[in-house]
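Hi support team,

I submitted a single chain yesterday and got back a structure, but I'm not sure I'm reading the token output correctly. Could someone confirm the output below corresponds to the sequence I sent? I've pasted both exactly as they appear in my results page.

Thanks,
R.
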Amino acid sequence: MGTERIYRTEGIVLKHRDSGEADRLLTLLTPDYGKVRAIARGVRRPCSKLGGHLEPLGRCQLVLARGKTFDRVTQAQLLETLSPRDLRRMAYAIYLLELVDAFAVEEGNRTLYNLLLLTLRELSRTQRTELVCRYFELQLLGQVGYRPEFERCLTCHSPLKPEVNFFSPSGGGVLCPQCRATEPVVQPLSVDSLKVLRFLQRSDLPTASRLRLSEELLQELEKLLRDYLRYLLERELKSADFLDRLKADL
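Hi R., thanks for writing in. Yes, this is the structure output for that exact sequence:
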């Protein structure tokens, strides 16, 4: 990557907030530099050449100058808008951005970048938004070192049998019925859910997005992964709370 003061990179805008009279602080995900915090000077002025190129869910080509606190955006060109056109899909897209912001670090990870890019594109065209989000959550967890164990019991390490097992958020995996008491908080994991979770871990996005699941099964998967993410982050994501309210109103 080098240590040049000026560098070029592609990036997806995860979020921004206003700073001062006309500046904006950005959080970007880049393939080679990981999560980058940068400032766009004067971007909120009507005459700014950067205006309109640095909105969340935008994929941009960027030129940045390294700074002590924040790098500075000197050039930006919008390559692609990844923003869905309806509120439901938009809410899921913002949720993915918040997840990435919570877990990504200042190290390059092209696989994570491509995962976010491809998933956001898929969100704009699929009807299976919840399934696509579950796929993303599992793949993200694997990328950042928290891949849940769905093959063997956490305690006795025996291969899991096709029966009701138990997921432990604190353990990051599944316990067999005989070992369920070894973790303080567990939740039942049905045979079908375990099969789907394994399939999503192993599959690519086009294959995973073709699955047809019942509403009951989708709800079980959502609860399991939401509990695990909440345990890891020690908080609930704001966008997850908004998604819950949105689904309740639909």
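A quick pointer for reading it: The chain has a mean pLDDT of 94. Let us know if anything else looks off.

Best,
Support desk
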